[in-house]
């Protein structure tokens, strides 16, 4: 009984070892080009050797057999002629002894190894009985044990016709039987059966097969070694090139491939290095150009501060005295005031984006109620929304939604999103959602206006890009608002994502970690939004993650209550 658990444990160990080996081979076959080429080369070589070896062994076996058959057939024909030339005897016993002596003589002087010679009368009532002569100490197959179909064919054979049959001798060695009818004077019609051994031919064939097997093993090893060496000469430079390309992609532009020799691989390496040199030069020039461009924007923005301040003071004085002017001059004063304000916004955005580009943007993160931030933004924009005929509806939890954020930056992001929604909302309702989970808080602004195409979604965060440049803007804007908002979200290690579909409106979702330095893997709000009619795939600018729940709060902003969500929470 103790052997059964031990055997089961051994089988389990063997199965695990087999599974591990199979997985290793499959993984190496998938990952390594060199291993794959060597394995395929060895397998194809083995298939070719098997096919060629099978064909050659068959041809050699056929040749040996036919040579043996020709020799035995010639001997059988000679034996037939000898028996037919015997002198006629009247005494049956003397005739039987003479035939037996003749058979022994033929067997003893045979140049080909024979096992036996048998003489069978066609008529069972013949005066001469069946005769059989054997090699001393050997066994032969009796004529009665030969296949019936073969014996019947021998009975029907014509004069001089020979029939052969492959047989297995009693000692399990291969043999060959050749039969021919013979007419013996004064004795009648007989059938001569000559049984020859094929052991020498079998030994020769076995030797050839062993030699072919050894040659095949040596050839497989040599072909595998050649394939390994040749593929290594190619794969090693490819691996080196892949590693150098990876380091270049990581920013190490000084890496180059080693160039050895003057062959095709060396030419490829030199071309790769030339490409890397050109790429490095272009990147260096682009970096220098980018630095100069950023410096130019920053310098211009700062230099414009002083004259803009002077212009603003003068504009304020003119604007305050506009009632003393005629109607045309008063309108010009108002226009000047609005454009100066717009110029200030643009200048502020340029300074802010230059700080982000220079890496000088600082984050003043403190525990903040995101719901209260959103409410205060909506309160400041409620007059503008009312003037445009747009309803702002807030969906938020009743409890505070706390997160460590820079209040000024998040307020600016939310204001940009809501202002964009009012601008493109076509006076339709705008839904603002606030939600949270264990790791993140989220704010999404959903409008039901003109929406965006997939091409517009791809460029919505580009600087100075507008979906419709010809569209009249009622709230101004520099074209940098969403770009700055995206940088503010990244500064918080958060996401700012956009979705839109033409005719169905747009949705912008801001997702922020609750604590600074905490990684977020999902958002508590869905994107695309839950009320979107989506057919097929839907493009989202940024990583698309999870869906979430909608809750409510009371306050000065109109509320939409989702009772089904509350019931779900109660469960």
CATH-scheme architecture of the largest domain: 2-Layer Sandwich
From the alpha-carbon coordinates, what is the Rg to the nearest angstrom? 50 Å
- Mind telling me the CATH class of the largest domain? Alpha Beta
Number of domains: 3
Largest sheet: 6 strands, mixed
CATH superfamily of the largest domain: Histidine kinase-like ATPase, C-terminal domain
Question: Which residue ranges are poorly predicted, with pLDDT under 50 across at least 5 consecutive positions?
Answer: 543-571
N-to-C terminal Cα separation, in Å? 56 Å
> Overall pLDDT, averaged?
79
Helix segment count? 12
Q: Briefly, what is this?
A:
With 571 residues, the protein is an alpha+beta fold.
Structural account:
The protein is α+β, with helices and mostly antiparallel strands. Helix content is 54%, strand content 15%. The chain folds into 3 domains: 85-202, 2-Layer Sandwich (Beta-Lactamase); 257-361, Orthogonal Bundle (Helix Hairpins), CATH 1.10.287; 366-570, Histidine kinase-like ATPase, C-terminal domain (Heat Shock Protein 90). Strands 7-9-10-12-11-13 form a 6-stranded mixed sheet. The protein has a 5-stranded antiparallel sheet with strand order 2-1-5-4-3, with helices on both faces. The longest helix has 57 residues, at 264-320. The model is unreliable at 543-571 (pLDDT under 50). This is Sensor histidine kinase MtrB.
């Amino acid at each position: 009984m103790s052997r059964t658990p031990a055997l089961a444990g051994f089988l389990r160990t063997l199965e695990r070892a087999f599974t591990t080996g199979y997985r290793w081979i499959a993984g190496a076959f998938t990952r390594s080009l060199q291993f794959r080429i060597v394995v395929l080369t060895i397998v194809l070589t083995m298939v070719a050797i098997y096919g060629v070896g099978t064909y050659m062994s068959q041809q050699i076996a056929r040749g040996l057999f036919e040579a043996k058959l020709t020799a035995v057939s010639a001997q059988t024909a000679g034996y037939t002629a000898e028996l037919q030339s015997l002198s006629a005897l009247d005494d049956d016993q003397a005739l039987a002894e003479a035939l037996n002596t003749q058979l022994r003589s033929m067997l003893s002087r045979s140049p080909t190894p024979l096992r036996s010679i048998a003489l069978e009368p066609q008529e069972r009532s013949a005066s001469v009985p069946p005769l059989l002569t054997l090699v001393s100490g050997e066994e032969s197959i009796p004529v009665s044990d030969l296949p019936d179909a073969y014996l019947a064919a021998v009975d029907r054979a014509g004069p001089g016709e020979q029939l052969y049959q492959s047989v297995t001798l009693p000692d399990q060695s291969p043999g060959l039987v050749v039969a021919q009818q013979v007419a013996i004077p004064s004795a009648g019609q007989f059938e001569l059966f000559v049984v020859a051994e094929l052991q020498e031919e079998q030994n020769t064939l076995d030797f050839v097969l062993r030699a072919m097997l050894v040659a095949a093993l040596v050839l497989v090893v040599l072909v595998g070694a050649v394939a390994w060496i040749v593929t290594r000469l190619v794969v090693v430079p490819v691996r080196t090139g892949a590693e150098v390309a990876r380091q270049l992609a990581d920013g190490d532009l000084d890496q180059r491939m080693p160039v050895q020799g003057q062959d095709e691989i060396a030419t490829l390496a030199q071309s790769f290095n030339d490409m890397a040199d050109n790429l490095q030069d272009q990147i260096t020039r682009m970096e220098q150009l980018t630095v100069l461009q950023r410096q130019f924007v920053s310098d211009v923005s700062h230099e414009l501060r002083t004259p803009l301040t002077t212009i603003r003071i003068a504009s304020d004085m003119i604007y305050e005295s506009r009632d003393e002017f005629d109607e045309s001059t008063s309108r010009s004063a108002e226009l000047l005031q609005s454009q100066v304000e717009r110029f200030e916004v643009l200048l502020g955005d340029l300074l802010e984006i230059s700080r982000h580009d220079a890496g000088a943007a600082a984050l003043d993160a403190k525990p903040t109620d995101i719901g209260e931030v959103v409410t205060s933004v909506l309160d400041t924009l409620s007059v503008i929304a009312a003037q445009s005929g747009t309803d702002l509806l807030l969906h938020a939890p009743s409890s505070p939604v706390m997160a460590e954020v820079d209040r000024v930056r998040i307020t600016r992001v939310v204001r940009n999103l809501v202002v964009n929604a009012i601008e493109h909302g076509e006076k339709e309702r705008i839904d603002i959602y606030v939600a949270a989970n264990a790791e993140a808080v989220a704010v999404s602004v959903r409008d039901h206006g003109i929406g965006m195409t997939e091409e517009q979604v791809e460029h919505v965060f580009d600087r100075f890009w507008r979906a419709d440049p010809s569209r009249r803007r009622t709230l101004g804007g520099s074209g940098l608002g969403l770009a700055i908002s995206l940088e503010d979200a990244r500064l918080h290690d958060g996401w700012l994502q956009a979705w839109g579909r033409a005719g169905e409106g747009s949705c912008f979702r801001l997702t922020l970690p609750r604590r600074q330095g905490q990684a977020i893997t999902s958002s508590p709000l869905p994107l695309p939004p839950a009320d979107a009619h989506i057919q097929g795939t839907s493009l989202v600018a940024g990583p698309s993650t999870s869906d979430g729940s909608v809750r409510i709060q009371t306050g000065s902003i109109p509320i939409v209550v989702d009772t089904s969500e509350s019931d779900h929470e109660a469960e």
